[in-house]
Amino acid sequence: MGRSDARPRIGRTPRIRTRIEVALCMNRSGMRRRLELVGYVLGAAASAVLVGGSLLHRLPMDITEVLGFVTGAWSVWLTVKENIWNWPIGVANSAFYVIVFAHARLFADSGLNALYVILGLLGWYWWLRGGENRGVLHVGRTSVTAGAVLLALGVLATLGMTRFLTSVNDSAPFLDALTTVLSLIAEFMLARKLLENWYFWMTADVIYIGLYAYRSLYLTSVLYVIFLTMCVAGWWRWSAVLRLGRAEIAPEPIRA
């Protein structure tokens, strides 16, 4: 049998394909960064217009509510991006709304935001040191047991708070109680970087939109429309991050 002189060809197609894929990925990444930069610039400009307009009395809105609006929008956007700066800005946002809701005599919402300040400080610490070996915390899922416990506590807390708010003649005791409990559960889950926090936020935001519009806090109602949109984006992005993380740590298949 004669020996073939043909040498095995080095596969070039996979290498070329890989280079093309890398180039396309880099191009998409660069485009995404440019779009994010445009978003930051537009957001900063809009924030400056709102704050400046309120300070110069060009807008019929209190400066505290405007600052709450601006810091709230930035906080949720940075949360979607998993940026640690969402926490200090979120703490400032909660502090502003303690004042806004107290002036509006919405004492349950004012107290809720005071709790947000505490949870915000905890979340800031947990995101930095709450992971394995006191490292950075990564996106995770809520266990079935933990989810059941949170839901049970949520139902009991909602019933108890509804009775209390009814006794003090709150204008919407059940909705106030429900949104308060949903928000506290969501904030705790967010501090622990659990994906399911977005479901609780979305449910609460839908209720808040109508509730604050009914109470003539129109700018805050608009803010919650923005929050709802960002929550959908946050759920989508965190889901992708979680899938990517699992793919990275998945064991290699055993080959014969």
What can you see in these coordinates?
The protein folds into 2 domains: 21-60; 62-246. It is 76% helix and 0% strand. The protein has 8 helices and no strands. The chain has helices at 13-55, 63-80, 86-103, 107-129, 144-167, 173-191, 197-214, 218-249. Helix 2 packs antiparallel against helix 3 (86-103), helix 5 runs antiparallel to helix 6 (173-191) and helix 6 (173-191) runs antiparallel to helix 7. The longest helix is centred in the first third of the chain and has 43 residues, at 13-55. The two termini are 31 Å apart.
Outline of the structure:
This protein has eight helices and no strands.
Secondary structure elements and pairings:
Blueprint lengths: L12 H43 L7 H18 L5 H18 L3 H23 L14 H24 L5 H19 L5 H18 L3 H32 L7
Helix pairs in contact: 1-2, 2-3, 2-8, 3-4, 4-6, 5-6, 6-7, 7-8
Strand content: under 5%
Rg over CA atoms, rounded to whole Å, is 24 Å
Main sheet attributes: strand count, strand direction, barrel closure? none
Number of strands: 0
> How many individual helices?
8
Strand-pairing-aware structural class: mainly alpha
Number of domains: 2
- The gross shape turns out to be globular
Distance between the termini: 31 Å
Write down the overall mean pLDDT. 78
Task: Sum up the structure in keywords.
disordered C terminus, 256 residues, globular, 76% helix, mainly alpha, 8 helices
